[in-house]
Amino acid sequence: MTDPIDSAVIEQQLRHRSVRRFLDVPVGEAQLERIVEAAQRASTSSNLQAWSVIAIRDPERKRRLSQAIGGRDYVERAPVFLVWVADLARNAELLRAHGAEPETLGLIENTLLGAVDVGIAAQNALLAAESLGLGGVFVGGIRNAPEAVSAELRLPRHAFAIAGMALGTPDPEEGTGIKPRLPLSGVLHAEVYDPERWREATGRYEQDYRDYFETQGVPDRSWARTVVSRLGSAAGLHGRHAMRASLRAQGFDSE
Hints:
Elements lengths: L7 H7 L14 H12 L10 E6 L2 H10 L4 H5 L2 E8 L1 H9 L10 H24 L3 E5 L6 H8 L5 E10 L28 H19 L7 H9 L11 H7 L6
Antiparallel strand pairs: 1-2, 2-4, 3-4
Helix pairs in contact: 2-6
């Protein structure tokens, strides 16, 4: 008997593409609630459910957030912009309500826990949205200006914005394709990590990456150059090199 390798869910996942242009069609409240319900079914460490999401529809608030993080027109134009928050504030208050002090919230394990919970839940949400005919894009730039974002969203101590998500009905004129990924040989290891496995895979990927961007009207694009630009110096972090101080300001000491 042949092992099954396809399903409607997998087919949906393999069709994923980032969407940055949207039709002027609202995301209904019932749709949004269903998407967040799907996010809530994501795995969560120790069932702590250490995340929250803030749905932003107000044009002025979207504009202020966009300006704070460097100008992202798809943040402003999205029918709804979601901000995914690592939220230990709720559990901190629960602890205090039961006569306990949240002594461990400054430990790096709980910083990681909140970020991991957000990532798993938010990906569930995007997949759910895509299954409804919507599209979106994650916005890591929400971390470019943590203090401004925290102030705009009135985040309490022990809450930190991890990622944004612009969400809406895709504009069919955008023309964005399905961006290629590294060959499986570059990411799938057997039993132990192979430190040389990346070489052949990234060499093959360079051409796939270049070919894809040619179809998007961007010639001579290099994945290697992109990685060097993003990770080679602090300038590529767009202000995020000061993240430790920003986390501490919100109560994530990460000790």
